[in-house]
Amino acid sequence: MVASVAMYPGYGWGWWLDDTSTLACHATWPIHETLVNASTWLIVAFTVERCVVVRFPLLKLRLCTPRNAGLCCGSLLVLAFVKNFDLFFVDALVVDSHSGGAICSVPLQYRDYINNYRPMIIFVTPCVIPTGVVIVCNWAIIRTLRRELMQTAISDSIISHTTVTCLAVSFAFIVCVVPAHVFYVTMPNWPMSIQNQHYTFGSLVLLQYANHAVNLFLYSLTGAHFRCELIALFRSCTHRWRSTSAVGCRMASATCMCLFRREFGIDLEML
Fold it and tell me: What secondary structure letter does DSSP report for 85?
């Protein structure tokens, strides 16, 4: 959403949010990078939590709690902000020699850092490490389920659904996130014009943003219980809205979500 306001109007109509004021120039890029990095690492955190639940079920009640989930989300957001804190100081409003207006640009003293060192930091922290963790955790989940549940009566359905879901999320994460980072690091070596580089990188960035919205649909397609509870949530909300008021809709949504959490907890206990 930050990118939709900060970047797309600029590429489409020439109106850039970071050119409007000094504050916008200094804050737009770091806020955007902070939210993107936090979103990526939230997927990693959820994958690690799933791995703990499957491989170490005795630790589930102690570690996988709403309080710890909130602390984890807050910590990831703070760490992402700290990682991108340097971006608050590398941009500045300068006068464009062609148009005569003020544009947000990187001064000469910071361009070597932005062009040569910053891409490697971006490649390692939001790409290489998260991808490795997601692959390893999902491999551990699938291996544990196949080893411990293959001999049980519930093995076929649980292994099938969980394996498909894990593989779908991991595959989507790798396909959507990795190409943009790889192209950003290797962009100077590609034999194409600057304009084509911008078009290509912009398309890959759109693919990266899609990763943060696709998981809901992946879980709906691969998880029968999740899909059933999601449909029940919307049906209950619609029914309440038609018969009572918007307040009743919110209460019904909260009730359905509580029911979903309880049923999902029961499924995890089965694991």
Answer: G
Contact assessment for residue 73 and residue 86, using Cβ atoms and an 8 Å cutoff = no
Alpha carbon distances (Å) from 245 to 235, 237, 238, 240, 241: 14, 10, 10, 7, 5
pLDDT of residue 242: 58
Q: Measured between alpha carbons, how far is 167 from 142 in angstroms, rounded to an integer? A: 9
CB 233: neighbour CB atoms within 10 A?
Answer: 18
CATH code (residue 52): 1.20.1070.10
Looking at the structure, tell me whether residues 12 and 99 fall in a common domain. yes
Q: What is the pLDDT of residue 255?
A: 47
Query: Is the overall model pTM greater than 0.85, yes or no?
Result: no
- Tell me how far apart the alpha carbons of residues 65 and 63 are, in angstroms, rounded to a whole number: 6
Q: Are 30 and 84 in contact (CB under 8 A)?
A: yes
Each residue's pLDDT tens digit, 245-258:
444 444 444 544 44
- At a CB cut-off of 8 Å and minimum separation 6, what does 9 contact? 15, 16, 17
115 and 240 inside one domain: no
DSSP character at residue 116: I
Question: Are residues 229 and 209 part of one domain?
Answer: no
Residue span of the structural domain in which 84 resides: 2-222
